[in-house]
Amino acid sequence: MVSCVHWANRKKGMKNLTKSDKSRIIEMAWEDRTPFDAIEHQYGLPEEDVISLMRKEMKRSSFKMWRKRVSGRQTKHRSLRKKNVNRFTSPY
Fold it and tell me: Dmax over Cα atoms in the chain, in whole Å?
């Protein structure tokens, strides 16, 4: 179940994310095994919004390094993952 705070963020987009929310989203985006689907489920931001947030909040060189790192990465895109991967996933 999505909390009221995150539901509000989903409806209003990135504008009403707290500094703490942005920090956590950036942290999750850098993690190799956290798919974009998990960020969308928890914060209501689809992949393209996460990319926009990363572009806005990071230095250009850091953003470019991150994009190169996650582009096409199987673990960041649930649809690219192997079907037999059954690791723990957050309920959020």
Answer: 37
Residue linked to tokens 């985006």: 29
Residue 76 burial (10 A CB sphere; 0-12, 13-18, 19+): buried
Q: Answer yes or no: are the C-beta atoms of 41 and 78 closer than 8 Å.
A: no
Q: How many CB atoms lie within 10 A of CB 50?
A: 21
Nearest alpha carbon to residue 32 among 66, 4, 79, 62: 66
| pLDDT tens digits in sequence order for the chain, 92 residues long | 444 455 454 545 677 899 999 999 999 999 888 888 889 989 999 989 999 999 999 999 999 999 998 887 766 655 655 566 555 455 55
Tell me if the pTM is above 0.70.
no
Contacts of 36 (CB under 8 A, 6+ apart): 29, 46, 47, 50, 76, 77, 78
